Amino acid sequence: MRSLKALLGIVVIVGGVYVAFKLIPPYFANFQFEDAIESETRLGVYSNKSEAEIIENVLKKAKDLDIPLRAEQVHVQREGSALVIWAEYTVHVDLPGYPVELKFRPSTKNKRI
Fold first, then answer.
1. pLDDT per residue over 18-76, tens digit each?
2. Cβ(66)–Cβ(92) under 8 Å?
3. Can you tell me the distance from the alpha carbon of 43 to that of 15, in angstroms, rounded to the nearest whole number?
4. Direct distance between the N- and C-terminal alpha carbons of the chain, in angstroms, rounded to an integer
């Protein structure tokens, strides 16, 4: 009985590590992507970049991070002296017996001071 509990404990720990191994990278990539679009927003407020150029830069960063993003999923909006960038995308993660769709909506707004 004691060895069965130890074996079950090891299986639970290994399962937890596996799930973390599969789920952490998309969240980490989203964190890096949010940082990149925040930086792009700060630069875009003070530059004369068009919305198309900003979208192109955002898509390049998404590609670098292996984020499945298309141009129609990236939104850029100028509101007076403010610039807003947001994107919506989904990452599919295959867990044994339980596929997961992780939905992300990174966004940022920056205003010229």
1. 999 999 999 999 999 999 999 999 888 888 888 999 999 999 999 999 999 999 999 99
2. no
3. 43
4. 68
Q: At 90, which helix (H) or strand (E)?
A: strand 89-93
Sign, Cα dihedral of 63, 91, 17, 15: negative
Tell me which DSSP letter residue 87 carries: E
Distance of CA 26 to the CA centre of its chain: 6
Beta strand 89-93 with 82-87: parallel, antiparallel or unpaired? unpaired
Q: Where are the beta strands (DSSP E) in 25-81?
A: 74-79
CA 67, 68, 71, 77 dihedral sign is negative
Q: Mean pLDDT check: name the lowest of 7-11, 88-92, 107-111.
A: 107-111
**Full-model pTM:** 0.84
Asked whether 62 and 73 are in contact (CB, 8 A), the reply is no
